[in-house]
TrEMBL record:
This is Efflux RND transporter periplasmic adaptor subunit. It comes from the Bacteria. One of its GO terms (cellular component) is efflux pump complex. Residues 173-200 form a coiled coil. Belongs to the membrane fusion protein (MFP) (TC 8.A.1) family. GO terms for molecular function: efflux transmembrane transporter activity. It holds the Pfam family BSH_RND. Keywords: Coiled coil, Membrane, Transmembrane, Transmembrane helix. Residues 87-222 form the Multidrug resistance protein MdtA-like barrel-sandwich hybrid domain. The keyword Coiled coil applies. Residues 239-306 form the CusB-like beta-barrel domain. The chain crosses the membrane at residues 6-21.
């Protein structure tokens, strides 16, 4: 009874074998033409990129390119920075005392040497008088000791004074001299204390804070005032290490503040050491500020003049990366795709300026992401499309 199911299974396997593995022979035996198998090309290329047949049976990739001529462009270095006071100092007390002068208000302009805070002298003038009196007494004692020493020396030569007396007289002279020097030091200290009672501005500038208030007690190191020198003012920027060699001392520089004001100065300092965190180099630019209208800490967009460079103006979309991650563009070379690395000089609203290409270049601007090195191309030039 099992013979028929087994026979049916064998027939089904045979039919499937001929349908799958011997389909062409089966169709030929039946008199039908064999079907051609067409394998469609897989591509993610955009509509602008098509595949064209080559004469030798190969394929060419259709791309759009532009003919670019190198131009000399201003090689200005552009960076962001800030304004910074030329000098800034916290003026502090060097001695203790109570403030007896009226305070100066912040924003006031002060000249170099102008008194900012005056302290109560207390007993310092009396200490100076006492030190001067001690010096007078020490000078008199020195003269007396010198006279005694001279007399002892002469008596010793005639045999009327012992060597002990002579040595004692010389010791008295030295002690008197030491007393005079001690008195001189006391006088200098007292005078210095009196001079420190007046805390003066080290340079001309603007007070950033009120001076110490009347009646306030200052100790050595206490703050009297903070003075900023804003003329000239300094622009501070940080240049990437790839561009630092293009900046020179004395180079003309300009800046635009956030308020829209434009200012001009010259480079006065280029750091020789890179910042450990950003790997950038500090650059200082000195700018006149006689009216003190430029403030410390304003944000500025800085442009530093440098030698012009030969570059190409390309669409930013033309940039691509090769397999090693190098930035560059795809160009047409002998009707085939080639990769050329480039360096970006400047990004503008009209495009991006790059260097590293030949004087003339045919840069692929559509389809560069779908070709690799050496791929045959069918090129349509952008100017021919217009």
């Amino acid at each position: 009874m099992r013979f028929f199911p087994i026979l049916t299974a064998v027939v089904v396997v045979a039919v499937l074998y001929f349908l799958v593995f011997e389909r062409d022979r089966l169709l030929e035996f039946a008199g039908a033409p064999a079907e051609e198998t067409v394998i469609p090309a897989e591509t993610d290329a955009p509509e602008d990129v098509t595949v064209a047949e080559e004469d030798d049976g190969g394929t060419r990739v259709a791309v759009v390119a532009m003919r670019s001529e190198a131009q000399t462009v201003d090689g200005a270095v552009i960076l962001r920075g800030r304004t910074e006071a030329e000098r800034k100092v916290d003026v502090r007390a060097e001695t203790s005392g109570q403030i007896i002068s009226e305070p100066r208000r912040k924003g006031s302009f002060v000249e170099a040497g102008e008194v900012l805070c005056r302290l109560d002298p207390g007993t310092r003038e009396a200490a100076l008088t006492e030190a001067e009196s001690r010096r007078t007494q020490a000078e008199a004692a020195l003269r007396e000791a010198e006279i005694n020493n001279t007399a002892a020396s002469r008596l010793s030569e005639d045999g009327f004074a012992s060597e002990t007396r002579v040595a004692g007289a010389e010791a008295a002279v030295e002690a008197a001299r030491a007393a005079v020097q001690s008195a001189d030091a006391a006088i200098a200290s007292a005078r210095n204390e009196l001079e420190n009672l007046e805390i003066v501005a080290p340079f001309g500038g603007v007070l950033e804070s009120d001076t110490a208030e009347l009646g306030e007690l200052l100790q050595p190191g206490s703050l009297c005032a903070t003075v900023y020198q804003l003329d000239p003012i300094r622009l501070v920027g940080f240049v990437p290490e790839a561009m630092v060699d293009r900046v020179e001392l004395g180079a003309l520089a300009g800046a635009r503040l956030t308020s829209g004001r434009e200012i001009v100065g010259r480079v006065t300092f280029i750091s020789r050491s890179a910042d450990e965190n950003t790997r950038t180099f500090r650059v200082d630019i000195e700018v006149p500020n006689s009216d003190l209208s430029i403030r410390d800490g304003q944000t500025a967009e800085i442009v530093i003049q440098s030698d012009g460079e030969v570059a190409h103006l390309l669409p930013q979309s033309a940039l691509t990366l090769n397999d090693e991650g190098t930035l560059g563009v795809r160009v047409v070379a002998d009707a085939r795709a080639a990769f050329q690395p480039v360096s970006v000089l400047r990004d503008t609203i009209d495009g991006i300026w790059v260097s590293g290409l030949n004087e003339t270049a045919e840069v692929i601007v559509v389809g560069q992401e779908f070709v690799t090195e050496g791929v045959p191309l069918t090129v349509t030039y952008r100017e021919d499309q217009q």
